[in-house]
Give the backbone structure.
Amino acid sequence: MNPRLDRLQTYPFQKLTALLAGTQAKAGVREIPLYIGEPRHATPEFIKRVLSENLSGLASYPATIGTEALREAIAGWLMRRYRLDRIDPATQVIPVNGSREALYAIAQAVVDTTRTIHPIVVCPNPFYQIYEGAAILAHAAPAYLNNVPQRNYAFDWDSLPKMLWERVQLVYVCSPANPTGHVMTLEEWKRLFELSDEFDFVIASDECYSEIYFDEAKPPLGSLEAAKALGRHGYPRLISFSSLSKRSNVPGMRSGFVAGDAEILKKFLLYRTYQGCAMSPPIQAASVAAWQDEAHVVENRRLYREKFDIALEILKPALDVSRPDAAFYLWARTPMPDPEFTRRLYQSQAVTVLPGSYLAREAHGVNPGANRIRIALVAATDECAEAARRIREFVAELRTGSGRAAGRQ
Ligand SMILES: Cc1ncc(COP(=O)(O)O)c(C=O)c1O
């Protein structure tokens, strides 16, 4: 077997299962899971209808590049959403089966061990663990750039020395970020593009949370939009990854796309032909309908806004927590080590959150996820409100000392 498989880290949810093994949640109360970033709002009926109307498509093999109709729907959405002058559906867009597989695959297609024997792939920290596994299996070493509250979670690009940038072949960014919710500013993009021009690396921009934001008048800046604003033509060395999973509440559909540099996408398409990851025809048809409709996305945001308003009002007096720029997570500070907080919260209140340190690595002397928890506001509004009240109660117990007693049981 590939020995690199042994270097893959346990997934955060497995670590959480191990943490909670043997811990009994408070009896007689409904458990509320807020640890997984799986959207749980209802899938719009029109998407299900289009999917079922196109089941005859199961009788044919799909092409890896997807249908023209889907690529045009995606290009149209990109141009509307990011006010782009042009994105060519023939060469600058490829449908993918959710952004996850494509985020993994891009490293396999990009990393070149003949250019340097020790290539580096830069990852945010904290981060979505796929980036790290993709780097390792592509024979590269991950390098972590910490995203910390002191810098409003922005990247400190210049914290990586020049001699390491020289070995960088791929940089993953996530904006809006999981778990911090940070949206990269034009200034962050500007410096990243300069570095990409200087050191010739590819940027994989994970934007699967781009449609979950709070102010209808201020959608998060996208990577292609930033490139346009900075006068870059043809999106050199830039690939944007997006997805319907969160935007349209269809994580089970596995539908997303990559868009950007045509030269890289041409090679990526070749890679994908061998990987065998063409999208099922009924899913392609349903995706066309989803990308063409915005009403359901506006309603989706309204639901998240409502949950953030309620949860923050309840939690703010108890925890150091604030509204993120975007996405559906609260990244709250804990008054004790995050795994202990998580375990005792589960025991005392039957609410499950994810320890922040499980989403980050120790780098530059710190684990930027330590003493943080990720709370995914994915459940129904009343359930999120109930969970927030229980978290507040738990923190109050800790303050009075009764929580300490419960933790020792
Ligand atoms: C940061 C980030 N990127 C990508 C994904 C993958 O989403 P999908 O494959 O459903 O598009 C997720 C899923 O939770 C995520 O949190």
Q: What stands out?
A: The pocket of pyridoxal-5'-phosphate is lined by residues 37, 98-100, 128, 174, 178, 206, 208, 243, 245, 251, 256 (CB under 6 Å). Residues 98 and 254 are 4 Å apart (CA to CA). Confidence is low (pLDDT under 50) at residues 405-409.
